Write a sequence for this structure.
């Protein structure tokens, strides 16, 4: 399906071309994947000193905000034209996910996330293993150094993101 190409990249590879994989939602109009990725992580607490003989607490004059590491759960679907192709794509995708760092680029946002797999979540076989085959599954990723900034494309027009 042409519409699924170039939406998600894993490293330099198009996820749909390489693995038949794309981000999916449980219901039409849903956006749980983008919600998970765009939700800012928790802030790290500031180091405060609490003296018994003073009211309140002391903080540095300049507060430099920093994020905690975060977990992100994403939902994927895998589409194949045959049982053999589905098995090949599923095995290759799982091997890529467990190979260490995973760089997921959402081309619509012009944003790359550097993650690693923390655990594989739910799995659903949506069609029988004959004809076109579709499965859906979730993966819980860890983002140890979150970067929530969205940068505009080179033309600087945010409407084109």
């Amino acid at each position: 399906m042409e519409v699924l190409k170039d939406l998600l990249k894993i490293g330099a590879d198009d996820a749909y071309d390489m693995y038949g994989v794309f981000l999916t939602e449980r219901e039409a109009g849903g956006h749980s994947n983008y919600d998970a990725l765009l939700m800012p992580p928790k802030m790290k607490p500031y180091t405060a000193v609490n003296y018994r003989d003073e009211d309140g607490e002391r903080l540095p004059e300049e507060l430099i905000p920093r994020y905690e590491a975060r977990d992100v759960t994403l939902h994927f679907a895998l589409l194949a034209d045959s049982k053999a192709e589905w098995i090949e794509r599923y095995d290759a995708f799982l091997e890529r996910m467990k190979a260490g760092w995973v760089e997921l680029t959402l081309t619509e946002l012009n944003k790359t996330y550097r993650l690693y797999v923390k655990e594989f979540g739910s799995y659903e076989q949506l069609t029988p293993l004959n004809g076109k085959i579709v499965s859906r599954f979730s993966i819980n990723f860890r983002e140890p150094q979150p970067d929530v900034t969205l940068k505009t494309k080179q033309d600087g027009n945010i409407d084109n993101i």
In short: The chain is about 15% helix and 30% strand. The chain has one domain: 2-39+69-160.
